[in-house]
Amino acid sequence: MTPFPPIPAERLPALLRAMPKAELHMHIEGSLEPELIFALAQRNGVSIPYASVDELRRAYAFTNLQSFLDIYYAGASVLLKEQDFYDMAWAYLLRAQADNVLHSEMFFDPQTHTARGVSMETVVNGLHRACTDAKEKLGVSAALILCFLRHLSEEEAFATLEQALPYRDRFIGVGLDSSEVGHPPEKFARVFARCRELGFRLVAHAGEEGPPAFVWTALDVLKVERVDHGVQSTRDALLMQRLAQDRIPLTVCPLSNLKLCVFPTLAQHNLGALLDAGLVATVNSDDPAYFGGYLNENFVQTFAATGLQAQHAYTLARNSFEASFIDAQLRRRMTDRLDEFVLGA
Ligand code: ADE
Ligand code: ZN
User: Fold this and answer.
1) What are phi and psi of 225, to 5 degrees?
2) d(CA 62, CA 309)
3) What's the confidence (pLDDT) of residue 135?
4) Atom nearest to 253 CA in ligand 1
5) Residue 1: pLDDT above 60?
6) Were both Cys, which of 27, 203, 212, 244 would link to 236 (CB 3.0–4.6 Å)?
C-alpha cells in the first residue's frame, strides 16, 4: 500500500479536500438544501410549515435519529415531478465533483414518494437521468441504491420491490434505512433473500443507534455486503473480529453521528478505533444538507477533532474504492488515481 508521506498539519485540510475518493452512504433526499426545498415548494404549490429558509434551518437541532427523520420526510414532500428529482440529484452531484468524489452510490427512499402518489417511474427516471448526465458532463460516476423504510411492513417492502422491478437496470442494489430501534434487520429477511436471488447488491443500516446484534443479523440473516454506520460494533469484540476478518466495509458518517447525538463530540468519535482494528471503514456524509456538511467537510472536521493523519486519509480513500460496487477495472483506475495523487503530494 502506498503510504502518504508525512505532511505538516496545516496542509492536511487541503490534502483531504483534493484527494480522490468515493462516497457510499448518502441519502439523496438528505441533500435537499433548505433553499431548494423552498424553491420546489413554490414551483409545485406545496405548503411547508416554515416561514423562511432561516426558520427551517433553525429547526435542524436534532436529539436522535427519529427527531431528524420527522423533518427529513417533511422536507421530501416538495418533490413531485421527474425534474424535481433530477434537480435535487444534480445539485448533489455538482457538490460531489467539487469534493473530488470520483464515484458515488446514492440511496433513495421511494416509499417516501409513492406514499404521496408520486410514481416509481417519476422518482427513478429523474434520479437516473442525473446519474447519466453526471458521468457525461462532470466525469463523476454515480449509481443508485433503493432503500426500504424499515418502520414500514415487510408487505410494503415487497410491494415496493414489485413496483421497482420494471426499472431494475437503473439501480444496483437495495438497502434498509429509517428508524432502527424496534425494527431489526431480520424483519426483512425474506425481502432481502428475494433481492439476493434477483442479483441486487445488498447493504443495510445497522448499529447506528441499534445494538451490535443488529449488525450480526444484517450480516448473517440479510447477508449484506456492507454495513451502513455500524459504529456500535466496537461494543462487541467478536463482531469486530468478524468485520475485520471478512473485510466487511462500514460506511461511517461522522457529522451525522455528531448531529444525531450518537457521539457527544466529534473528538469522541470511534473512526480511529475502527481503522486501528483493521476494519474497512469509510467516511460519508449521510444527509449533508441536514448535518452541516458534504463529504470534504466530514473529512476535514473529523480529522481536526480526532487527530487522524495523512496515512489515515489514504486508507479511508482506498477503502472507499474497495468497498464500492464498481467493476474491477474502474476500481483499479480510481485507485491508481489515488496513488498518483499521493506520489504528487
Ligand atoms: N434515512 C436518512 N438518513 C438516515 C440515517 N442516518 N439513518 C437511518 N435512516 C436514514
Ligand atoms: Zn444513512
Assistant:
1) -95, -15
2) 30
3) 98
4) 6
5) no
6) 212
* Structural domains of the chain ordered from first start: 22-31+83-344 (3.20.20.140)
- What pLDDT is recorded for position 343? 85
pLDDT > 90: what percent of the chain?
97
291 CA from centroid of ligand 2 (Å): 11
Q: Which residues contact 80 (CB under 8 A, 6 or more apart)?
A: 40, 44, 46, 116, 118, 122
Give the integer Cα–Cα distance in Å for 292 and 269: 16
pLDDT value at residue 2: 59
What's the mean pLDDT when you consider all of the chain? 97
Contacts for 171 with CB less than 8 Å, ≥ 6 apart: 108, 124, 143, 144, 145, 146, 164, 200
Residue with CA nearest ligand 1 atom 9:
178
Whether 186 is a known active-site residue: answer no
CA distance 44 to 307: 46
Cα(252) to centroid of ligand 1, in Å?
A: 12
Per-residue confidence (pLDDT) for residue 180, from 0 to 100 = 97
Q: Amino acid identity of 293? A: G
Residue bearing the CA closest to ligand 1, atom 10: 178
**Which residue in 66, 108, 117 sits closest to 89, CA to CA?**
108
Which residues form ligand 1's pocket by a CB distance below 6 Å?
Answer: 27, 30, 65, 72, 177-178, 205, 208, 256, 286-287
Residue that wins the pLDDT comparison between 342 and 171: 171
CA of 5 to the centre of ligand 2 (A): 33
Q: Is the pLDDT of residue 268 over 70?
A: yes
**Ligand 1 pocket test: which of 28, 68, 147 has the largest number of ligand atoms within 8 Å of its C-beta?**
68
Nearest to 130 by CA among 120, 142, 114, 118: 142
Q: Quickly tell me which residue has 404549490 as its cell.
A: 45
pLDDT band at 4 (very low <50, low <70, confident <90, very high): confident
Ligand 2 is an ion; residues with CB less than 5 A from it: 286
